[in-house]
Amino acid sequence: MSPLFRKLLRTHWPLVLLMVGLATFGVIAIYSVTHLRTGEGADFWRRQTQWIGIGLFLFFITSLIDYRWIKWGALPTYALTMVFLVLVLVMGREVYGAERWLHLGPVNFQPSQPAMIAGIMILALFLSRCRDIHPALQLGGAAAIIGAPALLILKQPNLGSTMVLGVVLLAMLFAGGLPLRYLISILLLLTTAIPLTVNLLLKGYQRSRIVAFLDPSVDPQGSGWGINQSLIAIGSGGWGGKGFLAPDSQVELGFLPATAVHNDYIFSAIAEQWGFVGGAALLCAFALLLLICIFIAIKARDQFGLLLAVGLTALLFFHVYQNIGMTIAIMPITGLPLPLVSYGGTFVVIIMFALGLLNSIWIHRKEQPDPR
């Protein structure tokens, strides 16, 4: 039996089944909210299927490669994504008031998404190699690693991805053994920095979203429209939902923003069509996926694998929490997609690559740990 085939047999198949199941359900959900469109958006579900195929190929390739090789590619990847983040500020394409997209020939992508993965890889390497230095130096180095891309991403402006990097940093510092007093200090510092960030670094439309989150009745026809219509859609789904492709829904009548219903507000459409049962089932699927990721982190053979798995799990968790949270008004609107379910070519490939890294950590968990 070849070594590659033996590795394939050690694949975490429940992880694969959940990933494929969520991605398939995502295609169905995207079709349900775009099937009446003509022209732009009519074939979103076909495009998503193609990207899922590319993501699956990348998942298995990544799974079969020992994750320790990431140590050699982490720094070049991090540097390259930093270059992309600078380029997007110089020559990026503006969409809905934010310069997040970069065009390089036929390729069109958001550099913030691979930058988050690169940040996790280099931070896992740094914390695993610098376990014996003073905690203050660990904190300073980790803050610099994550802070550089975070500031460039916030400049786009992209508040959602910046928040993801903050959550990832805290989770990895905790897993890396940083004393609790440092973590509490970070949380207090971040809390006091919120007013400055909102007033000095965010654009007007972002501040209005935060105001609408605090009080959706302030501007029901403007900044509060999305939150209010999302709550109406979810509430109108009731227990069992209106049914797949049901007529006269918030989606069909155009009350949910057509430009974002297939990504930012995909959960609202799902809850309207499949009701509480469908929404709860989706949440349970994500909860099971995250539990598997945590279990893989616990079983990692070395500190690098543990930190890498924790960072990727934190990234997945916050995307799920933020996306669903903003549709039910417990989080402000920030435009983060729902992993594997929302429409987005770059993002679904990045998420499957991240899950491939987690699967690699699982497959190679019993091999000899790296002594370095």
Description:
With 372 residues, the protein is mainly α. It has one domain. The chain is 67% helix and 3% strand. The protein has 13 helices and three strands; from the N terminus they run H-H-H-H-E-E-E-H-H-H-H-H-H-H-H-H. The chain has helices spanning 3-9, 13-34, 44-64, 70-91, 112-129, 135-154, 159-175, 180-201, 204-214, 225-236, 266-298, 303-327, 345-363, and strands at residues 93-95, 98-104, 107-109. A three-stranded antiparallel β-sheet has the order 1-2-3, covered by helices on one side. A hairpin with a 2-residue loop joins strand 1 (93-95) and strand 2 (98-104). Helix 3 (44-64) packs parallel to helix 13, helix 4 (70-91) runs antiparallel to helix 5 (112-129) and helix 5 packs antiparallel against helix 6 (135-154). The protein is globular and about 60 Å long. The two termini are 30 Å apart. The mean pLDDT is 86.
Instruction: Trace the largest sheet across and list its strands.
Output: 1-2-3
Give the total of domains: 1
Helix content: 55-70%
Alpha carbon gap, first and last residue: 30 Å
The main β sheet shows up as:
3 strands, antiparallel
Find the structural class using helix and strand composition. Answer: mainly alpha
Provide the β-strand percentage band.
Answer: under 5%
Bulk shape: globular
Low-confidence stretches: none
Order of helices and strands: HHHHEEEHHHHHHHHH
How many H/I helical runs?
13
What would the average pLDDT be, to the nearest integer? 86
